[in-house]
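Form 12-C: Joint structure prediction
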Amino acid sequence: MTMTDSEFLQAIGLSHSYVVDRAARPVLHGVDLQVRAGEAVCVVGHSGTGKSTLLRCLAGLLRPTGGEVRLDGRRVMEPPPDLAVVFQDYSRSLMPWMSILDNVMLPLRRGLGSQERRSRAQQALADVGLDGTGSLYPWQVSGGMQQRVAIARALAYRPGVLLMDEPFASVDAQTRADLEDMVLTIRRDTGITLVVVTHDIDEAVYLADRVVVLAGTPASITADLRVDLPPERDQLTTKADPRFLAVRAEVFNMIRTELARAGRAT
Amino acid sequence: MSARLLRLGRHLLVEAWLPVLAVTVWWVGSASSTSLYFPPLSQIAERFRELWLFDQVPVHLVPSLQNLGWGLLCGVAAAVATGIVIGRMPRLHSALLPLMEFMRATPILALLPLVFGLLGLGVTSKVALIALGAFWPTFLNTVDGVRSVDPQIREVARAYRLTRTDIAFRVVLPSAMPQVVVGFRTSVSVAVVVVVGSEMFGAGNGIGYFVLQAQRTYAIADMWAGIVLLGLLGYLLNLLSAGFERWVLSWHRGQRAAAAVLGEGAR
Amino acid sequence: MTQIAHERPLAAPLRGPAAAHTPRSAGRRPWVAQAAVLLGALAAWELLDRSGIVSDDALAPPAATFARLGELLVTAEVWTAVGQTLTGWGIGIAIAIALAVPLGIGLGLSNFAYRSTRLVVDFLRTIPALGLIPLAALVFGASRSAVLVVVVPACVWPLLLQTAYGVRDADPLALETARSFRLGTWGTLRRVVLPGALPFVATGLRLSAILGMLLAMSIEMLILVPGVGALLGTAQRNGDTVDVYALTLLAAFLGLAVALAVSRLERRMIRWHPSVRSRR
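Section 2 - Result
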């Protein structure tokens, strides 16, 4: 799991088209992405560029119409066992008929034994700061807490790779900052490989070792920027750091130029 | 505390005055009745006590309830199982659609002669027909419920590689449960109608047989006592199935109440 | 088969024979598979008949059944019976509408009336409809009135409850709008509340109509009131297996026709409703 070569998770010439009214509508074209083990990569792009499509292909939830996805050298044809996904809409991704603890335990293999499954789930809940809420139902807690449950579910699964699709787009600003810091802590403690899709440039730069920009129709990767910040980050000081501001400005300009170019083209 | 008691009292008063009045009017109005068809309620109550507490219970009520139980169990179990399978296979569902529409539009009791011919005049026929009647409402609702499982939930199940059994019993079935239970409650009322109908058509016991026989032998108070028993039975079964719904769907009511308080989406 | 009244409102105009089951993700030509399934069912029937597992007294061959059905359909007797069944059913439904809709509106408008009648309504509507057959036979004999005595009380409930729910369900926003336009009580009722309740009434009408057909045929069969049910009951008593099968098919087609007709009517009544519009 802790291999250090550059192609732990990779997309090679990835393309995808949806069929709309019997015509193929291409969304992604020739996307190449390499993620090293333990690296945190954020994919940014404005809404509708195909970020979620890319994430679904990486997760094995969607079979790309061209190219391929590889995880640890093996071609991904269906969701691989070493990978977990956190979706944007927590209210729809948690099972309302199960308690919070049962939700977290749901994906754990029966082979583990019930004691082990329970303690793992409780540990994961503690890790996201939800001690003692296991017996509640998801809809009894706030949106931010529900998204924590979804993250705990992913952590209890102990994946090598964690994919997150706009994970904090539906929570308020304060909760969002808390959750970002929590993800950073988890990453530091577990060394997990992280791919986060977001439209928020600040969030992308704050969380990532690398930010890649997805743009165009059909979309491909138009920029790949290293974030040269220390691993210890802080909502106030990091976001005021000149290096943070530099990367942020660069990504912002990149997306704005792309948008302008797209505007001229149409 | 006393305010709550007061509220409870008012609640009971508002809900109960009409039933009490209705029974009283029937009782007083029929007290001196000499009509052959409408005997005094006191006489009906007397016969009710003699027959159903509990002299005739093993002869007529128990067989009816047994048939009802078996028929419901078989019909509903088959309906949920096939409903889950067919609900997850849109092509199969579409292929079966015309046949299903035809079968479920058939007035169920019109099948009595055919089923009695096929399976004989015994318990098997009745249970089979009750099961068939109970099948359709639960089945159609299960199919609908399974088809409307949130795609996001399905995606979570795939992403976390849940086993087929887990997907069926811990994801799809609970998600479809609100609709399944609505279907189940309809199944219960249909099953009761089929029980009564099948006993009237060809049987030597059962509550349906009893009422029809009482009418044919002009034992009118007995007939009325039987009808009252049927009414009580229907009401009790409805209470039971409502309780069952409450119990199974406690999460669903809680969620809807929470959603109503929070408004849409995030807090 | 049949749906009987619920304690809570059915989410207005959903489950109908044709309404909710539009195959969306099915193949491009579903009728090929559908025809195959129907033929398969006939073939299974034929095979079961030829295998001799079931005696000839109990199971009629499909060819003979359809042939008999064809013969029956050119006799005046059968069409008279169909007419009698439909008439009894139609009168029953009409009376049920005339009783249930105004009462339902009343119960929907008055909270006191709604709560006062709840126990009585709950009790009366859960009486198994066929339990009244002996009473009907006793008072009216094998006549159309006997059919009505059973059909009307049973069909009143789905309509009554759906109407009451529909009226109670009136959109508060629409009510405020009506007040701001000073529509007055009658105007609000006629222009806002009743149109809003219409989908619920339509659903109640469909439930009642299908239930009514089931009951009408059952009574005809059980106490031999002239109609399709009586033909079927007589055939069974005479032990004429082919007739039983042919007439069962006839009853099924009649049931199907009623179900299709009422769900079409339901969709017409609520043409403006989003659940129908989106299916265009």
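Section 3 - Comments
Strands of chain A lie at 9-20, 23-35, 40-44, 66-71, 74-75, 83-86, 161-165, 193-198, 210-215, 220-226. Chain A touches chain B through 29 residues (CB under 8 Å).
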